[in-house]
Inverse folding.
């Protein structure tokens, strides 16, 4: 079935993260090396806490691959948590013997899942909420995204991104969907392609750390080489912009998503928002060009052949070393929120997660449009579609062809 889906399981301090990805065609080259490269990128980043010194994320592929290629069966990916060694007792799978229960977390952190999760699941110990709400889960998404990235690359589609602003420090405007910008961002430990801005961002993180505070920012994710016509205007669930917004918004701590010009469209007249369509015979299969890409590559819920450009705003991490007011759930009295080891800023990591989600959403849309059970079939279907885009477009008018 050409429906791409994935599930993840695993607690932050449990034994491992597990992901299952179904719906890939057979014959896609997959290996731990490419997955581990993205996992390593997600772990880097100025402002991470002590946890990243413990973890060295490495994937094991345990199903769906033979001889370095997918079989067409579900893929299973496992990432052990090295920190599990330190949590074996308090995170044990088996029942706690009476009298050996670990100390409970009872001081909900404003901005975290603690309070709502307690109400929802009926947990006393907030650790039962925070273990899964933790962004540790995103390592599994990055593993899935890396496999999807490999699928996209085989079809000539590249995905990258960068950090546009961090803690209010805004970098200079960057050229759109530029592999050089993506490469420069990969060299920076704040994922910013501009060196001077990177220094200022690091300073902002240092200051936040001293103040016991945390920082967020804006990240940008982009894709080049996406064929027009992915997604659909036919049904609200099929709109690719809606799917992308949901995928990015589902990343922990993301509070806003923009596509193309984003919220700026609200204040501009249509003549300055919409991208003109000009004749241009550089590509015989698509003989037109767009002098601007304010739409971010998406019109009517479909890809339009231009680069996909989306941005996401991450809020500052809610675990504060100088905690905010909260309520002690044992007494109902005013207290300060729970404090535990955490990150000052995880924006560079969130960028890698956002790239992974973009890879997944595009791979799913390609699977839906082009089907196929083997890579050869997918490639042939995509190629036939591209050939069919030849101008003049559209089926011939009745009686126009003899
Ligand atoms: C997180 C808290 C920190 C982060 C963690 C997310 O972990 P710990 O509580 O073990 O110090 O480092 O992120 C990861 C473990 C990761 O792999 O990204 C949280 O509370 O969300």
């Amino acid at each position: 079935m050409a429906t791409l889906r994935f599930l993840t399981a695993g607690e932050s301090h449990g034994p491992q993260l597990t992901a299952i990805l179904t719906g890939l065609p057979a014959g896609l080259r997959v290996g731990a090396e490419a997955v581990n490269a993205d996992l390593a990128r997600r772990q880097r980043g100025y402002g991470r806490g002590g946890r990243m010194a413990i973890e060295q994320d490495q994937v094991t592929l345990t199903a769906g691959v033979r001889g370095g290629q997918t079989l067409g069966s579900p893929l299973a990916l496992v990432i052990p948590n090295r920190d599990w060694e330190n949590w074996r007792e308090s995170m044990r799978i088996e029942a706690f013997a009476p009298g050996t229960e670990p100390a409970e977390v009872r001081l909900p952190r404003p901005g975290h899942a603690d309070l709502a999760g307690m109400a929802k699941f009926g947990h006393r110990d907030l650790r039962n909420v925070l273990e899964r709400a933790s962004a540790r889960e995103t390592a599994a998404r990055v593993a899935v995204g890396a496999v999807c990235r490999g699928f996209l690359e085989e079809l000539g589609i590249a995905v990258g991104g960068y950090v546009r602003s961090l803690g209010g420090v805004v970098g200079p405007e960057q050229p759109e969907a530029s592999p050089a910008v993506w490469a420069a961002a990969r060299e920076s430990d704040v994922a910013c392609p501009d060196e001077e801005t990177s220094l200022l961002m690091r300073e902002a993180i240092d200051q936040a750390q001293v103040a016991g505070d945390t920082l967020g920012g804006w990240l940008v994710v982009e894709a080049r080489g996406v064929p027009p016509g992915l997604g659909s205007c036919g049904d609200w669930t099929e709109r690719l912009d809606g799917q992308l917004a949901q995928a990015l918004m589902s990343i922990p701590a993301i509070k806003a998503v923009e596509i193309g010009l984003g919220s700026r469209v609200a204040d501009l007249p249509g003549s300055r928002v919409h991208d003109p369509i000009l004749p241009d015979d550089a590509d015989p299969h698509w003989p037109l060009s767009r002098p601007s890409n304010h739409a971010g590559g998406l019109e009517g819920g479909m890809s339009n052949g231009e680069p996909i450009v989306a941005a996401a705003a991450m809020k500052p991490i809610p675990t504060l070393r100088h905690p905010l007011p909260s309520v002690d759930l044992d007494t109902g009295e005013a207290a300060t929120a729970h404090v535990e080891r955490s990150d000052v800023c995880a924006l560079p990591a969130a960028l890698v997660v956002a790239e992974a989600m973009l890879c997944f959403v595009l791979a799913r849309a390609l699977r839906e449009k082009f089907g196929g059970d083997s890579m050869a079939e997918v490639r042939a279907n995509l190629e036939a579609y591209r050939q069919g885009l030849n101008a003049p477009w559209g089926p011939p008018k009745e009686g126009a062809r003899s």
Q: What stands out?
A: The radius of gyration is 23 Å.
